[in-house]
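Inputs:
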Amino acid sequence: MKSGSKLMKLSELARILDASFLSGEEQSDIEIFKVGASDFMSDILAALSEGGVLLTGLITIQAVKTAVISGCSVIIFVRNKEPDSQVIELARMHDIPLLSTPCSMFVSCGRLYAEGLIGLSGSR
Amino acid sequence: MPSFKKCFNIRSRDFIHAGEASIAVQQLLKQMHVDSNLIRRIAICGYEGEMNVVMHGGDGLFCVEIDKNKIVLNISDDGQGIKDIAKVMEKGFSTATDEYREMGFGAGMGLPNMEKNADNMIIESENENGTTVQMTFFTKSA
């Protein structure tokens, strides 16, 4: 963790985004400090994603596989998007909590930035 | 670490299973207590490679070979091949369709990302005659 960045429990992050859990609610106590937002999975794969939150509008199985491969701890789908059950099942298998927020990508990023979270590279 | 080789089949346009070989290799390397940063680099290269085969290649083969000083990923396919290898190494160059972009890939970052994460990468391709990408990762004991 980069010094000076804020640690936030997943339950608090869910509250800030008015987000609901699609899976992995038992992990609501894990602590988050960085976030990456993209619909392009190569962007996430190219970044320092380990331990980060993936904020995306992509609800395909590739979003979960990208999180598994890159080490993202959590996926949050924007604009109330929900993936199908096969995607949720894969996330459960790999212990990656999935959440869905009514906020847009822009508003989600704004709210989390305002709370002190940092980008995947550690910058603000 | 004893020498070890394992291969997986990749099927053209099989987006549901694409990535499974890389995740299996990731789990295998974790069990072998390989350095976690190295595992992540290998898994990222593998996944980008698998997606390339599924999107652009034909059917393919994904092999990992682990020996004392290095881990080698060899991803080959029998697809259309690459006409201009220098061109596909440029960031942002892509021949992907909108269908692929809707799945979060095809932004022209795959091969540059693989090259960045591998210690050595060799692409061999003939027009209409498939592509082989070999990536080598040196372990710390090298």
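The interface with chain A takes residues 15-16, 18-19, 22-23, 26, 40, 43-44, 46-48, 51, 101-105, 107, 109-110, 113, 116 of chain B (CB under 8 Å). Flag for discussion at group meeting.
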